[in-house]
Specification:
With about 375 residues, this protein is of the alpha/beta class. It has two domains: about 1-175 and about 340-360, Glycogen Phosphorylase B (Rossmann fold, 3-Layer(aba) Sandwich), CATH 3.40.50; about 190-340, Rossmann fold, CATH 3.40.50. About 40% of the residues lie in helices and about 20% in strands. It is built from 14 helices and 14 strands. The chain has helices at about 15-30, 65-70, 80-90, 100-110, 125-130, 135-145, 155-165, 205-220, 250-255, 270-280, 290-295, 310-325, 325-340, 340-360; strands at about 1-5, 35-40, 45-50, 55-60, 95, 115-120, 150, 170, 190-195, 225, 240-245, 260-265, 285, 300-305. Strand 5 (about 95), helix 4 and strand 6 (about 115-120) form a beta-alpha-beta unit. Helix 8 crosses helix 12. The protein starts with a strand and ends with a helix.
């Protein structure tokens, strides 16, 4: 099958959940003999090139500062280019990873009759829907027009049902079990890794820094490794360091080095960075909010904490550091991650593609 994946941005410009999801899914599709291509945008001249077996078409993204100032929905200016890219291709199905990209795909569907899938990377709660002008209308149109809608977790699916009146399918994202695997390199001193983007308030990296200061009372030599974000300094403190974790191999090595991986976020639709840590045999500390307990589902592989007090998070981190010393922990973490392999994710999407293609009217 020829599959067009659509996402507003891609790396190296942005390396977050949907960008990494697109790459992991494409790898799984390529391994199964299919032909994915990514239709995306960037602020420079349009380009097209093959990157690790996948064609990446980056259209020029017109400036959107005026729209942003007026609180319009994000990622609108590139849609005409994405639509034209679809028209010029030979795709059997268009798979959008953001609601506005689904609008471009639906215009393509209206001309070709070919099916459209929307995978929603977040949780459509009420405050998110109301935060931008045109956002609710865009996602309602996308949900109603798509041949299938996919959520990343049961938590996200329940929010869809509550706020949008539809029950999507649930396909959890996959982790590359070859790239993220246990191995040597464990740090000599207690090391906590947080690969989340500290510029996003919902990631609560500041809360983690405060909790880490309490952890240092028990482990004065402990380190906290945070992801470096260009142009923005991470929370500072004794034992805290920043590291460039954009590269997948570097991130995997950092997970193997860490004794514990921390993800104190709220609003997570799944928590792929937590799964990547588990795949490396590293226990995880996560908040008990939204979908994270669906990933960290056992005290054998980590801890969840409640509330927004540093003491609660510090207590979970200290317990997880003790858990990391148990020889059985690494195998338990790895076994949990194996239930969410890239292969299983790709197989689920291949079955869904075949289903919607078979049901699409011929033109």
């Amino acid at each position: 099958m020829n599959v067009a994946l659509l996402n507003p941005c891609y790396w190296p410009e942005v390396r977050r959940g949907s960008e990494r999801f697109a790459r992991e899914l494409a790898d799984g599709l390529i391994a199964r003999g299919h032909h994915p291509r990514l239709v995306t945008s960037h602020p420079r001249r349009s380009s097209s090139r093959v990157e690790d077996g996948m064609e990446v078409l980056r259209s020029w993204r017109p400036p959107d500062a005026r729209l942003r100032r007026r609180q319009w929905e994000d990622h609108l200016t590139h849609l005409p280019s994405s639509y034209l890219a679809l028209r010029r291709g030979h795709d059997d199905v268009a798979h959008a990873l953001y609601p506005t990209d689904a609008l471009a795909a639906l215009a393509w569907k209206a001309r070709t009759g070919r099916p459209v899938i929307l995978s929603f990377m977040g949780i459509p709660h009420r405050s998110w829907l109301a935060a931008r002008r045109g956002r609710t209308g865009a996602i309602v149109r996308a949900v109603r027009g798509a041949d299938a809608v996919v959520a990343l977790s049961e938590t996200a699916a329940a929010a869809f049902e509550r706020w949008l009146g539809t029950r999507p399918r649930v396909i959890a994202p996959g982790v590359d079990l070859e790239a993220f695997a246990p191995g040597p390199g464990r740090a000599a001193v207690p090391t906590i890794l947080c690969a989340a983007d500290h510029t996003q308030p919902r990631k609560r990296v500041g809360l983690l820094a405060d909790a880490f200061a309490l952890v240092r009372r028990e482990h004065p030599d402990a380190r906290l490794v945070l992801s470096r974000v260009r142009g923005s300094a991470a929370p500072a403190g004794a034992g805290i360091e920043e590291r460039d974790l954009d590269d997948r191999a570097t991130l995997a090595a950092a997970n193997r080095e860490a004794w514990v991986a921390a993800l104190p976020s709220i609003g997570e639709a799944f928590g792929l960075v937590a799964l990547e840590a588990l795949a490396c045999g590293t226990p995880v500390v996560a908040s008990d909010r939204e979908a994270l307990p669906e990933v960290v589902d056992s005290r054998r592989i980590g801890r969840v904490f409640a509330g927004d007090e540093p003491a609660a998070l510090a207590g979970a981190l200290l317990e997880a550091l003790e858990l990391a010393a148990d020889p059985a922990t690494s195998a338990a973490c790895r076994a949990r991650a194996e239930r969410f392999s890239t292969g299983r994710c790709a197989d689920a999407y291949v079955a869904l593609y075949e289903e919607v293609i078979a049901g699409a009217p011929r033109r």
